[in-house]
């Protein structure tokens, strides 16, 4: 089983994983069973206030804004 056997959205991530630690076909299959694709619309939310994050995100393209509120300000991180 090669990267070509997986959905195209996973290829970039599998390539990144392979640069860190080479994966065999069985390992790639094991990893991809836990992956899903989520497409966020512009101005969409990955996580909303009050939610606890139980996911990890890998961006294929675009940008995501991380922000939090302090007592006096809204702090943005890119």
Whole-angstrom Rg: 16 Å
Mean pLDDT: 87
Q: Taking strands numbered 1, 2, ... along the chain, how are they ordered across the largest sheet? A: 1-2
Sheet/helix structural class:
alpha+beta
Outline type:
elongated
Oligomer: single chain
**H/E element order:** HHEE
Largest sheet, in brief, is: 2 strands, antiparallel
Helical content class: 25-40%
Q: Low-confidence runs (pLDDT<50, min 5 residues)?
A: none
Question: What's the short story on this structure?
Answer:
The protein is an alpha+beta fold. Helix content is 27%, strand content 10%.
What descriptors fit this protein?
2 helices; 78 residues; single chain; elongated; alpha+beta; 2 strands
Notes on the protein architecture:
Helices cover 27% and strands 10% of the residues. By secondary structure, it is an alpha+beta fold. The mean pLDDT is 87. A hairpin with a 4-residue loop joins strand 1 and strand 2 (74-77).
What's the helix and strand layout?
Elements: H1 8-20, H2 25-32, E1 66-69, E2 74-77
Antiparallel strand pairs: 1-2
């Amino acid at each position: 089983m090669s990267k070509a056997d997986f959905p195209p959205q996973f290829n970039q991530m599998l390539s990144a994983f392979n640069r860190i630690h080479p994966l065999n076909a069985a390992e790639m299959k094991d990893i991809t069973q836990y992956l899903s694709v989520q497409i966020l619309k512009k101005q969409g939310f990955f996580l909303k206030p009050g939610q606890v994050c139980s996911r990890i995100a890998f961006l294929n393209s675009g940008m995501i804004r991380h922000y939090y509120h302090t007592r006096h300000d809204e702090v943005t991180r890119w």
